[in-house]
UniProtKB/TrEMBL annotation:
Record flagged with keyword Cell division: no
Compartments, record wording: Membrane
Bilayer disposition of the protein: Multi-pass membrane protein
Gene Ontology biological process terms in this record: proteolysis
MF (Gene Ontology): metal ion binding; metallopeptidase activity
Source organism phylogeny: Bacteria, Bacillati, Bacillota, Clostridia, Eubacteriales
Superkingdom to which the source organism belongs: Bacteria
Transmembrane stretches, start-end: 9-31, 76-98, 110-129, 150-183
Listed name of the protein: Site-2 protease family protein
Pfam families to which the protein is assigned, alphabetical: Peptidase_M50
Length: 282
């Protein structure tokens, strides 16, 4: 089960919003941030990854460890969160067209999702925009330093704008955004990393209930990513790899996990076992 904790910045924002009489906006923020992260988690699980801990921020969540994910998967996982917010905005807009009377009640939900959507697309790591850029760049080390540097620079600019606003009408939102950008650029921990489900397969079993045995036969062109999705907490997996009618290898669940840790998840089972032959009964 994933651990979920709220970052201190979330509580600061909650206090400011309640103090300013925006409790309804706060509720929309919590719900939208959870849906945003849920989309990330779903996309990650679909591609053979899970998140050890979710740290919710006002704009979504702090997620680290993208360096260990295949670029194509990292791009899809990063895009899932903003797409969830975009879908919510689209649904709300459609409701306005069909039922204009709902506009006052649903406007806060639209504003919150628009804010989370825009904020997460900023080119700052580990925000989603930074993750998507990192996923398509070849020099990841240099790109990562640049993305983190942009985050710190933007935080400084917003901090200066907050100080300047004190002379004209103080704007606490600028301070909150500055803090969030800085924390994003410098945040993240090992607990918040996406890791392959293969690392956690033994922990996924729920031994408090009967665990069934599942034996499946797959073709050599089946990818490790698809194979990893067959691992569940309520069953133990055994796999027969076949090339047509010919049995190529028989894998235990532990051997499947071993292959998934040794090779990219986009690798076919046939390629994996030809490079690393497990102790199979053939």
């Amino acid at each position: 089960m994933q651990k979920i904790r709220f970052h201190p910045a979330f509580w600061v924002l909650a206090f400011v919003m309640v103090w300013q009489g925006n409790a309804l906006m706060l509720i929309n923020t919590v719900v939208s941030a959870c849906l945003h992260e849920g989309a990330h988690a779903r996309a990650a699980y679909h591609r053979g990854y899970r998140l050890g801990q979710i740290t919710l921020m006002p704009y979504g969540a702090v997620l680290s460890g993208a360096e260990a994910i295949e670029p194509k998967d990292a791009l899809a996982i990063a895009a899932a969160g903003p797409l969830a917010n975009l879908c919510i905005m689209s649904v709300v807009t459609a409701l306005w067209w069909m039922f204009p009377a709902l506009y006052p009640a649903t406007k806060p939900l639209f504003v919150v999702n628009a804010t989370i959507f825009v904020f997460n697309l900023l080119p700052v790591f580990p925000l989603d925009g930074g993750r998507m850029i990192l996923a398509v760049c070849k020099n990841r080390t240099k790109t990562l330093k640049i993305l983190r540097g942009i985050g710190v620079a933007l935080a400084i600019v917003l901090s200066a704008a907050f100080v300047a606003s004190a002379f004209f009408g103080i704007n606490y939102t600028l301070a909150i955004w500055a803090a969030m950008l800085y924390l994003s650029a410098t945040g993240g921990s090992r607990d918040e990393q996406y890791v392959s489900l293969a690392l956690n397969a033994p922990c996924l079993k729920d031994w408090s209930a009967p665990v069934s045995l599942l034996n499946v036969a797959i073709d050599t062109e089946y990818t490790l990513k698809k194979l990893l999705r067959l691992i569940r907490g309520d069953r133990i997996l055994t796999v027969e790899i076949r090339d047509g009618s010919r049995l190529v290898a028989r894998l235990t669940e532990e051997e499947v996990c071993d292959l998934c840790m040794r090779f990219p998840l986009s690798t076919t089972v046939g390629q994996a076992i030809s490079s690393f032959r497990p102790t199979a009964d053939v």
